[in-house]
Amino acid sequence: MEPTKLYGKANNSLDEVYLVQNPALGAILMWEFVKGFVRQSAGRLPELPLLFAVLPIVFNETLRTVMSGTNPSSGLRLFASKFSRDQEVLLTLQRRMLMLRPTSLSSLSIALECGLLTLNVTSASVDCTTKRYPSRTPLAVRELGKHADKLGGWCGSLTLQEVQAALRIGF
After folding, report:
1. What is the rounded distance in angstroms from the CA atom of residue 44 to the CA atom of residue 153?
2. Which of 28, 72, 107, 111 could tie 117 with a disulfide, CB 3.0–4.6 Å?
């Protein structure tokens, strides 16, 4: 999905900046991730650290393109194995997570404030409070949301340690 369709901007060189600096979009993507996770995990809730991987993965065009071509039933391990020839993409994920941490925190804050997500502070688990999109959500945002939902489903079928190993990240 091209960011110009999301924001109507004409300057393609700034498209990634518009994506990355939009915590409201990030809030919706985190909500979609949690929905997918809960659906796949039979009620187990995602732990807070997992949400810091959502934006760096969904906002990355290379990862998003490969994600589009991977079936939901294939799983996170098969998705990660598609980068065996270009390991740099996954190896830089940890750095992107650190760089996007402020945006991820802002997105999480918006999702909590708007009531899309709830946080259990004793278990550090996150749940979604609604199953329907907020009113007037653009179709382009919903398309990005499908990627976050798929990622959540993949992570929901694995433990936190298995996700870390597959993506080569640490929390």
Report:
1. 11
2. 111
Contact assessment for residue 135 and residue 142, using Cβ atoms and an 8 Å cutoff: no
pLDDT at 2 over 70: no
Residue found under tokens 């960011």: 3
Domain boundaries, the chain: 3-167
Q: Cα dist. 120→95, 125, 141 in Å?
A: 27, 5, 27
* Strand ranges (E), the chain: 117-120, 125-128
Cα distance from N-terminal residue to C-terminal residue, the chain: 29
Token code pair at residue 68: 């589009």
Q: Which residues pair with 47 in a beta bridge?
A: 125
pLDDT over 70 (residue 9): no
- The model's pTM: 0.86
User: If you ran DSSP here, which 8-state letter would residue 2 be given?
Assistant: -
